[in-house]
User: Fold this.
Amino acid sequence: MKKIKILGITVLCAAVMSLGACSSGDEDTAPEVLSGGETKAVSDDGQAAGGGSEVTGSYHLVYRDVELAPGAEADPAITSLGDDYSYFESPSCAYQGMDKVYTYDSIIIRTYTMDEVDYINSIEIKDDTVETPEGIYIGCTSDQVTEAYGDSGSDTLIYVDGDIQLSFITDGSGNVTGISYDVVSE
Assistant:
C-alpha cells in the first residue's frame, strides 16, 4: 500500500510539472521561421554529403565530420551522424509538433518541428572529447574562452551571432563545465 501511495504521488507530481512547463500563453501564435542555414555533412574528401548546404553564421559545431548549427534542418545531420544514438520525443510546448532529443556519445541534439520539418534547436557538448571549431572544450578556463571568442561584454560567457547563441557554463573556479549552441528565442 505504501508503494502504491508513493507511486501515485510521483505520477501526480510529474503531471503537474509537465503542465506547468507547457503553459506558454497564446496557443494560436505561430513562431517565426529563424534563419541560420542548413547543415552540411562533409565526407573525408571534403565533398558535401547528406543533402545539406553550407551553414551560415559563425557559430557551429563539427561532430563526426558533420557540421551542425541551431536553426538548421535536422534530418540531413541526423542521417549523416548514423544510428548510434538514443532517442526521446514529446509534444512541443513552444511549437506545433514534437520536440525530439538525439543523444550521441558526446553531444545532445534537440530539435523542434515547424511546417512538418525538423530544425535543430540546440546542441549540447557532453564531455571533453568534442571541441568547438575555435578549440574550446569542457575543462578549458574562462580565460581561454575569452581569448578564443573575445570579451562577451558581461560576466557571463554568452556569445550571440545572428540567431545562434553560444554559451559556456563555468564552475566557481572559472573552468568550463558545459557548452551549448542554441537558437536565440525572442
